[in-house]
Amino acid sequence: MRFAQRFEEIEPFPSVVTVGAFDGVHLGHQALIGQVVAMARAYGWRSVVVTFFPHPAVVLRGESPFYLTSPEEKRACIARLGVDVFVQIPFTLETARIRAADFVERLVRIGMRALWAGPDFALGYRREGTLPVLEELGRRYGYTLHVAMEFHLGGRPVRSSRIREALREGDVRAAAECLGRPFSVRGEVIAGAGRGRRLGFPTANLNIWPEHALPANGVYACWAELPDGHRHMAVVNIGVRPTFDQSSERVVEAHLLDWTGDLYGQTLTLHFVERLREERRFPSIAELAAQIHRDIARAREILGAAPLPV
C-alpha cells in the first residue's frame, strides 16, 4: 500500500475513492472499504482511501482523549484490507475551510472515477457537500457516487462513537464486537514505582499516547503482545492505584502471566478481552494480593477460551 500526505504526491490513475476519518477501522469502515477495493479490482482501477489527521473533531471541538487507533494503527488496519493508496491529509482550520467542489476537484485530478460514501456522509466546508451535492458534482466531473448501507450490529449502527461509549463503560467485549477485533493500545514500557514486584506481581507500566482512548478504570484480562509477535496472557490495571497513593494520573500496568525478563524500553501491545472488575481500594495489601490471585485465575480461564487470531 502506498502512503501519501498530499494529493500532489499521487500520480493520476483511474481510481475508486472513499473519504472519511475511519477512526478505529471498525466493521462498518471495513465493509465500506471492502466495496471500494472490490470495485477497483473489478475494473482494473486503483483503490484509494483518503483520511485526516488530526481528527476533525479534535481540531474543531477539542475532544480528547479521543482516538481508537493511532495513525500508525489505522494505516496498518487499512493496509490489511487490500487498499492500494492511503492518503492521510493533515487537518487544520484551513483544511476545514476547503469548499466541497474544490476538494472534489483534487480527487478528480488523481483520477477518481467512483466515490463511495456512507448514508450520512458530507464533505467540505460546514459539511456543504451532502450526497445530493456530490451526486451533482459527479455529473459535472465524470465520476459516479455510490452510497453504502449503514452497517448494523445488534439492531444498532456500528459507529466510532458507539465504541467510545462502550470503552467509557469498560465494556471491551462490546467494543471488540464492533471493531471485529479486540480493542488495543500500545506503549513503551517505562519504570514504575516497583510496588507490583514487591507484592510478587511485577508489572510493565506503559507510556500510552495521551490522545488514545482507554477503557474505564478497572482490571482487565488481556493478551500482551511483545515486539517479536509473541503473546502472553496478562492482567491489566487501568486507574489511579487507590490502595497505594490515589494518584490523579491514570496509569496502565500489565502483569504478564508466566513471563520473566526485562521489558523496559520495549513496545508492548495490549489486546483487551474482558473486564474482570472495577478498580477499588482495599483495606490492606494482603487483601489486594489475594484479589490479584483471583484476578489471575479468572484471566487464565477467560483467555484460555479466547485466543487471539494469528
Descriptive account of the structure:
- By secondary structure, this protein is of the alpha/beta class.
- The protein is built from 10 helices and 14 strands.
- It has helices at residues 27-43, 56-61, 71-79, 93-96, 100-109, 131-141, 160-168, 172-179, 195-199, 285-304, and strands at residues 2-4, 15-19, 46-53, 85-90, 112-117, 144-147, 152-153, 156-157, 183-190, 204-208, 218-225, 231-239, 251-256, 267-277.
- The chain has a 6-stranded parallel beta sheet with strand order 1-4-3-2-5-6, sandwiched between helices. The chain has a 6-stranded antiparallel beta barrel with strand order 9-10-13-12-11-14.
- β7 (152-153) and β8 (156-157) form a beta hairpin.
- It is elongated, with a radius of gyration of 22 Å.
- The model has no long low-confidence stretch (mean pLDDT 93).
Short overview:
The chain is an alpha/beta fold and 310 residues long. It is 32% helix and 27% strand. α7 packs antiparallel against α8 (172-179).
